[in-house]
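Many introductory courses stop at the sequence. We go one step further.
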Amino acid sequence: MQDQKIIDIKKSDILNKTQVMKIDGYRLAQILALKDLTLHYLFVKDENLIIFRYSANCPDPVESISSIYPYAFMYENEIKDLFGVNIVNMNLDFEGKFYETSIKMPFRALESKVNDGE
C-alpha cells in the first residue's frame, strides 16, 4: 500500500463518509471489531487504504452501511453475533443467527471473563 490513513470519526458520520468513499471509487475491503468495540471500516482504491475508526457503545445502535455497500451485511452480521454490537437497518439481518455459537456473543463473553479476573 502506498498511502494509509486512519481517520477517527463520529458514529453519526458513518453513512455520509461511507457515501463519499463510494462516490470516490473506493471499495469496502473489510469491517472489523476489536475487543474494546472499536469498529474499523477499511476502504481501498488503487494503492490507497483509508480506515474509519470509532467506538461502538453497546447497546447504542450503529447504522448499517449495507445500503451503500450491499455486501457489508456479512461483516455487520458477524460483528453483531460475535461482539453484540447493535447494528441496525441492515439490508439482510440474520437477527443473531449468522453464526451458531455455544456462547452468545462469545467475544463479549471473553472480555467479561478477562475483566472479572478469570
